[in-house]
Each structure stands twice: as C-alpha cells, then as structure tokens.
Design goal:
The protein has 7 helices and 9 strands; from the N terminus they run E-H-E-H-H-E-H-E-H-E-E-E-E-H-E-H. Helices cover 35% and strands 19% of the residues. It is an alpha/beta fold and 182 residues long. Strands 1, 2, 3, 6, 7, 8 and 9 form a 7-stranded mixed beta sheet that branches.
C-alpha cells in the first residue's frame, strides 16, 4: 500500500533505515507532537537500541541488510524479513507488524515471505523528503491518506521540518500509521 483511505485530513510520516542517529530527532518529534513510524534495518539499528528506544516512535521492519528483494528466492527473502523482525522483537520487546521492502521493490515472493513472518501489511509511500524538499510521485501537494518517506540522515532536521511545513501548508495533520493499520 502507498496510501491509507481516510476521510479525515491525515498524513503519515515514516522514517527508514536508521543509518544516522541524529541528536535532534527526539526533540523535534516531541516539539511537533508527531509520532512517526520507523522501518529499521538490522545493520543500522544494531548497537543503537538506546537511541531508537528513546524516540516517540513505533518500530517496524525493513530487512536485515537492505537488499533489493525483487526476484530473490523465498528462503533468502524470508531470512531477510523474519531475521529483521526477530532482531527488532528482541531489542524493542514487540514484534513489528508492518513491513517496508527496501527501495519499495517487491514481488509475489516478497508478499509470501512477509506473510509467513507474520506481517499484516506491506507499506510503501506516495511522497518522499530528501535534502529538505518534499518530492511527489504524483501532483504537487500532499493529500489526505498519503504515506511520506524520509530517512535517518544528516539532513534529518531539514527533512522533518520540510515535511511538517508541507503538511501544514496542505491542511493535513500527521498521525501515526499504526492508528490505521494496527
């Protein structure tokens, strides 16, 4: 899925990978009252439990090593997806229920592997934030139900701020994805 059907003016912010643990992330989220959904890779999250646990977020799965899953065999995909879910359950005390395939790439095997790992939904996006700019896949504004992607990068402050400003400009309120997909 790339959007959530809703008749309310809601937008959803998701943050991937975990490569850069920006020191201002927690403060920005709390000041804005915005609770993102994060999709972490084992390779970036490992050893950084304290950082991610202090964020006001819900943690979801994004594979162990961030490979392009498309066209890969079932056992490879299951190992990447279930292995990451097992790691996150161990570090965060709760098994994730949502899965995002790296690069947004997936096939029928990915869906089957994710289902076998217990995931309820495969989540992609309709807009992305990079280098302080919101980039749209269609149109030139956020619309209700959009799922927005950003990453834990050195530009976290600029990206998160750009998302907040764009959501406000387009008359939308950021809400947790889990409220709709829990």
């Amino acid at each position: 899925m790339t959007r959530i059907e809703t008749d309310k003016p809601y937008v959803f912010i998701t943050i991937d990978d975990g490569a850069v643990q920006h020191p201002k992330a927690r403060e920005l989220m709390i000041e804005a009252g915005v609770w993102p959904s994060v999709f972490l890779n084992t390779k970036y999250a490992e050893g950084h439990k304290d950082y991610f646990k202090q964020l006001p977020v819900t943690v979801h799965s994004h594979t162990s090593t961030h490979p392009n899953l498309m066209g890969k065999g079932f056992e490879f995909q299951k190992h990447e997806i279930c292995g990451n879910a097992d790691f996150l359950a161990g570090d965060y005390g709760k098994r994730p229920t949502l899965f995002r395939p790296p690069f947004g790439n997936y096939d029928a095997t990915t869906r089957h592997a994710a289902a076998s790992c217990g995931f309820k939904a495969l989540v992609n996006w309709t807009a992305a934030v990079n280098d302080g700019r919101v980039q749209f896949q269609q149109g030139d504004e956020l619309v209700r139900g959009d799922i927005v992607l950003m990453h834990f990068r050195t530009t976290f402050v600029e990206d998160f701020t750009a998302f907040l400003n764009r959501a406000k400009q387009d008359g939308l309120t950021p809400v947790p994805l889990e409220d709709f997909l829990g």
